[in-house]
């Protein structure tokens, strides 16, 4: 990289204040690196480059759109900046949601390369180019990139943008093409890991040493998502195999699955440490992300080691008619419960606020999507069996099996949440009675500084609000319970001294029981929501859920021996599970993309195909069983969800690179 002079000298050169002409280094179209920034002109210092890299990563996380920034000295053909930038895009295999901001620093030209089918309109791109020109003119190259990202963010609205998603018909066609290709491939041979694959490592000369920290973090997040999907799918398949062949036959795989879970949980703990509010050094960040990659690799390797025996155990090709009949019966049972789930949700809606039911509000509709997909797969399986194609039948049966299981999970989640809300009501009512007693006890205490009176008044306000909330037809029991618990903690500090030890211990256990119940409800709701929509959910939500589950287990284990510590762990589990739900709902909202007409929002969408994509079924189920997925779900391939990590350029010729590049734009600065 050529070293550039200071900004003052550069400015002087720009206005012609120096007599000697400077050389202009024309640059051929370049190959992009692993990150979002390629600074061959040397205009960014390391801090600026890291900031731009992070901003582009954030842009991808919130919109699903990649914006790469390239700084060179001059384009090889200054008269055609468009051709230069578009050639970079095409030679790097960029897709329709991937853009390049190309800047020729000495040539003083710039251009944003785009695909005509992408989410940004020509006018929106022209607006972005107009917005960044002042920064380029003043030599603020990092600021220009930041302004461009802000312009994309504003135009796309943080959710992929209006019209940014694929039209439903296109998505269905793509999904069908992908499935057809996978089925043909599976008939030829079962998937196995490629020999000689590069393994993760942190020793000298490791490929990971060549990655910048941001790229390393993105890879770790992607590995968490893929491995979590692999473990979840493997767990479901183990259940199916145990039911069909017996626990003894599946014992080896059960052990491998347990080991994989342990590795994955450790990886999620490291991810939570990276995400918390405590600053981490560069060395810690790199070391923990490398360790996450190694743990994920270890988890997948354990599953793959048992893959051959497990695949032989399944042998759906050999007993496809019996397996088909079994799934058909499961489908009948689950389908028969759909009306009951509808009725239960409608009944709950008459008593509870919409936000209290947000994790199950569309569950019956999503269950019908899974049933529709299962029906299509079962029909394909029957056709394949008739034709004597056991391999194709096995693929369809496996997809139907998982889809039916998800439909059942979605139905059961409605009842589970209803029971949790009702229990929350009972706990809140009991806590109100306790608080009334505490306020009476506090009123009899000396109050020289007015602190007791203030605490009583605050508690009274919370109790009155809780009573009103519980009397409403739009109750939020778990939120009410949280507010009452906060009020209880406050007044406990006042009346604790007048309770005897036995009464205090009883009260602590009561509060602990209520908090654990609440945490269990939150963790269960988060688990059900994410499992049935995992095709869209990224690493953040999964990490929070894994940590919430670990804290809940600790709370339960410490309940008898250390109630105080157990209460803290239960509160942490409750908080983390709530965050997991929020992250997951944001991811699903981005994946569904209202700008594309609510592509996954129920109704007819190609035989339940898009619902299956949201459930992470289509690709994960079709690539050879065991959940040993290297590429994630079709949802990830289409750019949906809010996964951590940008990049992800498709290779030239891949289906993601459709559309045509070329637009009038850019200019001189």
Please characterize this protein's 3D structure.
- The chain has 669 residues and is mainly α.
- The chain folds into three domains: 7-162, Roll (Diaminopimelate Epimerase, Chain A, domain 1), CATH 3.10.310; 165-308 and 516-652, no CATH class; 315-498, no CATH class.
- 63% of the residues lie in helices and 4% in strands.
- Strands 2-3-5-6-7 form a five-stranded mixed β-sheet.
- Strand 5 and strand 6 (109-113) form a beta hairpin.
- The two termini are 23 Å apart.
- Mean pLDDT is 77; it is low at 1-24, 159-174, 176-205, 594-604 and 619-659.
- Keywords: Membrane, Signal, Transmembrane, Transmembrane helix.
- Residues 634-660 have a biased composition (Gly residues).
- This is TPM domain-containing protein.
Side by side, the strands of the main sheet go: 2-3-5-6-7
Radius of gyration: 29 Å
Order of helices and strands: HEEHEEHEEHHHHHHHHHHHHHHHHHHHE
Strand content: under 5%
First-last Cα distance: 23 Å
Number of strands: 7
What overall form do the CA principal axes indicate? globular
Low-confidence stretches: 1-24, 159-174, 176-205, 594-604, 619-659
Average pLDDT works out at 77
Q: Count the DSSP helices.
A: 22
Keywords: Membrane, Signal, Transmembrane, Transmembrane helix
Region (Disordered): 634-669
Signal peptide: 1-26
Organism: Microbacterium rhizomatis
Describe the secondary-structure layout.
Blueprint: H1 7-14, E1 26-27, E2 37-39, H2 46-63, E3 66-72, E4 74-75, H3 81-91, E5 98-104, E6 109-113, H4 122-137, H5 141-156, H6 168-188, H7 213-245, H8 251-275, H9 282-305, H10 307-314, H11 320-336, H12 338-349, H13 363-386, H14 390-443, H15 451-471, H16 477-495, H17 501-531, H18 539-558, H19 563-592, H20 609-614, H21 618-622, H22 634-637, E7 667-668
Parallel strand pairs: 1-4, 2-3, 3-5
Antiparallel strand pairs: 5-6, 6-7
Helix pairs in contact: 2-5, 4-5, 7-8, 7-9, 7-18, 8-9, 8-18, 11-13, 11-14, 12-13, 12-14, 13-14, 14-15, 14-16, 14-17, 15-16, 17-18, 17-19, 18-19
